[in-house]
Amino acid sequence: MCGPETDFFEFGMLFDAVDFGVASLDFFTKYSYCLWWGLRALSSRAEELQASTFFAETHFCIVISLTGLLLLAMIIGTMETYLESRTERLEEYRIQQMDTEEYMNHRQLPQEMKERVRKHNLYKWIKHRNVEEEDIMAALPIDVRRDIKHHICIELVRRVPLFDQMDERTVDAICDRLKPVICTSRTCLLREGDPTSVMFFIMHGHLDSYTTNGGRSGFWNQCQIGPGDFCGEELLTWALDPRSTNLLPLSTRTVTSVADGSLAPVEDMGCLFIQTAWRRYKIRKLVRMLCAKENYNKANLNSQSKNKAKISETGSSLNTKNAESGEIFESDNVIRTPVSKPKDPDYLD
């Protein structure tokens, strides 16, 4: 009565499975067919299902239809929210570009300079979608912000030999002073002979670093630095020098970006903080050394006092013992022999 050749029973939504003999197929073929059947039913909201009058089958088709409608509504809502957010950000970018264009026209900037400003704004938009990372970080709790900065910057900071010697708290404080910036190609970050106010840690991209050795004719030294490297270390040397003046050090090299990339600079105020932290670290290290030396000296003095006490006790016991036997010792700590020196022989006899 239930065979595919008879019309007596309504198979309903199971007609395809009975018609194709799905029950006798291997597991992977059966699973693939059932997966396709489920996706087709959800995507069409059960419109293609021919349910029978069986109570459970009817309600199962109702559940499939409602689930398909719910998923469709969720997809539409998500797409609408995404498009609204993207439209809003595009409008903000458009307004910002209009303000920038008005400013450049008002200041009568040359065309080449305008192109550089447009390129920087476009790259910043593509990179961050007009999202200010510093604003996001400022809204987070202190411990979360410290952990994030530690995760992002710890490898960059530890590459500096001087920072690698500092304790964990000082390195975390240095990481907290780093701020991410982006730069486009052919951007001059440092120029030889100019005061150095920023030290850069490279996160992405590459930089060209070259020097003419103070303008000496015929001299040219060039190298390329990439992710993990740093430049502007003259500022760090100046900050850690106790005899340094208020004048910023002069850069010994010219550094320009080769391709678009991200940097993490630490500015002169950060270097002053590093100087203070480094001095505190040196003071703590000196205090630990002095405490260890003091403890060592105390231990030696106690050991020497114990040894002298033992020698005094030994001498006193020997004096007492020899006094009873009629032998006389002097009262100092030097043990002297009670036997008189024998007469020297006369070798002429």
From TrEMBL:
Transmembrane segments: 20-39, 60-79
Biased composition (Polar residues): 313-323
GO cellular component annotations of the record: membrane
Region spans: Disordered: 305-349
Keywords, sorted A to Z: Ion channel, Ion transport, Ligand-gated ion channel, Membrane, Transmembrane, Transmembrane helix, Transport
CDD domains according to UniProt: CAP_ED
Protein name: Cyclic nucleotide-binding domain-containing protein
Phylogenetic placement of the source organism: Eukaryota, Viridiplantae, Streptophyta, Embryophyta, Tracheophyta
